[in-house]
Amino acid sequence: MTHSHGIRVAVxxxxxxxxxxxxxxxxxxxxxxxxxxxxxxxxxxxAARLAPYDVLCLMRERMPLDAGLAAALPxxxxxxxxxxxxxxxxxxxxQARGVxxxxxxxxxxxxxxxxxxxxxxxxxxxALPREFANMAQGRWQETLGEGLEGRxxxxxxxxxxxxxxxxxxxxxxxRVTAWSPNLTPERAEAGGAALATRDALFAESDVIxxxxxxxxxxxxxxxxxxxxxxRPGAILVNTSRGPLIDEAALVAALAQGRIRxxxxxxxxxxxxxxxxxxxxxxxxxxxxxxxxxxxxxxxxYEDTVEAIAAWRRGTPVRVATA
Length: 322
Fold this sequence. Notes:
single chain, Rossmann fold, seven-stranded parallel β-sheet, five-stranded parallel β-sheet, oxidoreductase, D-2-hydroxyacid_DH
């Protein structure tokens, strides 16, 4: 049991059970008690379960921390979230309560997400999950895959990650186009793509990949109209945020066998065990792995420990802006 003057730290959503070994938590001192949570804390239980802690360490957006929850945590003095920005944390509300909020560096997250995007694209094109399962079950060839050379890759968003995916698409011999609300022909060309209209991108692409930030204006940016416009058999890849796609429209199109999808992100995370997406053979699903690499997590947790130590010295580092 910690003494009353000790500091209690909760490291949340350590799904893989790796946080303890990736940074020197003991270096924070004997009066700092660190506890690691390997399961998500349900929203209904969050106020009660997190009330004893002085410090909360959040993994990206796995655990929302809004003004209501902040008000229910009177002991809270420091929040450290991993990554550079976190829209699911109400930084302004926390700072108004006198809670310090710090972030970490981004690690290889952008690069790793671009790599996973390509992996999902190829897994869909070559029916890899089904053939992996066939081999594990003693069977042999069952599917006809398709090559991507000469096909069109349409990118919705051409920031840092989108531009990396564009480069790989070109390396595969694909024709690369891009659209986003403010994209100019010059910026598209600089990012390695040709500017397309939104309608043309959805109608003409063989593979469509989303690389947009989540905002009120981008929620449902791929809706029933865009999905209906897609070519039969086209592949939709999302490694950005689940709510960019109208999930009901996507599930309907997949259930009809009209399109295929490679998805790393979902409206609800963790994705419920009985979710219809899990049972659709033309959906290739990964559990939000985009940024999940050893190198990124090592940096996340080392930066988190550094932030706690700096805060204790009265000189906090990487203080988040509201």
